[in-house]
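ugh ok fine here u go
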Amino acid sequence: MAVTLALSLLVIAGWIWRIDFLLRIYPGQVSMKFNSALGLLFAAAATWLLATGAHNGRRRLIAYWLVLFMCLIGAVTLWEYISGSDVGIDELVVTDTSFERLIHPGGRMSLLAAVQFVVLGTCLFCWNRCATAIYQFTCLSLIGFISSLMLVGVNFINDAPHMLKMALHLSLGFILLSMATWYLQPALHDRVRFERRLYTGFGSVLLLVIVIAVYTSFNNRERIKQSFWIKHTSEVILALSEFIGSATDLKDSAHFFSGNDHGQLASPAAGTALSQLQKIKTLTIDNVLQQKRVDSLLNLLHPQKGIPFGRERAKQVLDISERMAAVENNLLLKRQEDNEKSIVSSNRIFFVFIVFACVLLTGLFVAVRYNYLAREKSEEKFKALLESAPDAKVITDERGIIQLVNLQTEQMFGYKREELVGKPVETLMPEGIGVRDADHRLDFIHESPMREMGSGLELNARRKNNSMFPVEISLAPIRTEEGLWVSASIRDIEERKKAQTRIASLAKIIDNTSEAVFSSNEFFKIMSWNKAAEDLFGFTEKEAMGKPVVNLIRPQVGENERKHIRTELHKAGFWKGEITYLRKDGAPLYLSVSNTVTRDPQGRVDGYISVCMDYSHRKKLEEQLRAANTELEAFTYSVSHDLRAPIRAIIGFTNILETEYTGQLDGEARRLTGIIKTNTERMGNLIDDLLGFTRTSRQNIIRSNISMTAMVNELATAFHQGYPKVAWEIHDMPETKADLTMIRQVWMNLIGNAVKYSSRRPDAKIEIGGATTGFEHVYYIRDNGVGFNPAYQSKLFQVFQRLHSQEEFEGTGVGLAIVEKIVSKHGGRVWAESDGHTGAIFYFSLPINEEKTNI
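structure:
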């Protein structure tokens, strides 16, 4: 920049004081115009201000104003060329009095100079903007290349348009400015990287420019030499023309003079001719033939004493001199022709060089742009990956200076991205371990790839508000063109530490709990095993860890049931049921098991937790109870069956008594026999119901598909014949798979119960329906009868329990118990609702999975 500033100031001084050497360094070349020098001064000053005032707003403002003035000068000059007008800007400050104004508007800079000022101005306006890196590189390279061509060749082409020529020092100024503008913006260098082939290409262009310079230098020397000989021949021809004129005067003279004592002609015209002939002899010293002719002429012009010159000798002089002139004219024509051919040939070669260089440079620019776009695309992918990383990412160079961070880093530490880039990584670390981490980082760079830093060492990071929090840092080296960088993945483990504390507490609780608790991974291999599990199964923790559950404690379930359990477990997230396992010694364990699925942050199953409760003792009690119930049912059935004969006998003998001894029985006796028969019949009904209840307990379930709607409609029709005043409302109900006879008995008992307790109302109404909810079908029957007291709801389904007296409503108290027994046997539930005076609703459910059965 200093050289450019000095050049521009010297040219301005040259215009002010009219020093031609400062305007044009090489004689005969175009001069640097005042506006060009002014634009060069503005550009150099603006570049210096932008480079040194990156954080100084006033300097940047001044620089932009200077760039604006420079662009205006170039743009107005361009308008003058395009429109063919003269707006007066060319000689606004100084007047151009050089010879150039005869062929070019006075004071107007070159067209190429005007274009380059405008293009350079756009680059300066985009100072340090990374998005314009490829644009600036292309424009500045073109400015440097074109200026180099001006410097080494174009200005020396005589027939090149004057408006395309630039002064040599202006070309040098543009070269220096383009180089300075690029290299003073280091932020742009990372955006334009060169592969080896691109370096080779630019080296080829530079070599081509050097070849052009060498060729131009050689060609210029040849042209100077040819110009010298053309000028020399022209001087010889001019001298011969003058001599021929003098010889003609001698020939046409009326008087002829003889030689004097010194052997010379006495005429003044003869003296002039001799002096001219001496000049010609000097000029033709390089031509032997012409020298001989000159000697002949000298002999003719030096006659012997007393011998007149004569017309004949004068004619000989004219003939020789005319032949000399003809030779020189031919020589001049040949030299001019050779010169023209040389100019055309050299111009062609020069333009071939230029075209080849332009094609090569264009190819390089295309390659640079392709490389830039590929790099930009790669960087976009890298940044997208960086931003999508779940952890905070900090990338530093070898010195630990932060180069890149992602959004998670901003959120984790509270800094803006711009506040971290360029700062040491210790900004995010406490001062207490800053030096140690720097040493650790340098050691890491030359060691292995990805590994944790601080494994076994508790590390802490520092937020912008100076609050500290625990982190886990993983480092990975990245090899870049700038050297070896380090990528740090930072994870906030504050919540993890809290969770670990809670887990430790829970683990202590689990280890001390009475239930056996163990966990397994997604492959059902045991990962944890508490003390209660050791006691229950007989395996120590060391023996259990890593073993498959199936091989260790051997659950006694079939393959189909195992698949069913896993399906339910993955579908609902938990499963609860009873499974028989085997202890280490082979003894069976009857366990109530709760299995829960655990998932990773992405929602994938990563393990299971099993809690086992031993109900082996309860199992034995249940078996004993089942055996006792079986015996009781057998006894009840036997007793009930044996009681039927005496009851039939009582009824039979009472009937005989009433029939055979009618005349002997008074009214009281007949009342008593009636009571005997009524109670006996009630007892018979009770025994029949008890036998039915017992048969229900002993009967096996035979499943078949049942249309509940059809069955209920059939039963309602039958009941309607006996109770025509009852209104029926029957909805569609889901089909089920159950024992047909048993379910028919359920509906008969429930419908009979509803009819019995609502038939006394004049507006008796029964509603029956059902729906599917979750894993079961639910059916209901609603009546508007007398209802029941909710306080005694628990007695509804117990044997012989009645909430109404025999006088109010007949019954044995077994019907609802049979309903509960059948539904429970199918794996369902029975319940009822009532407010005590506006009817009742009875519900029962049957599981959708027909395999679920309570035996």
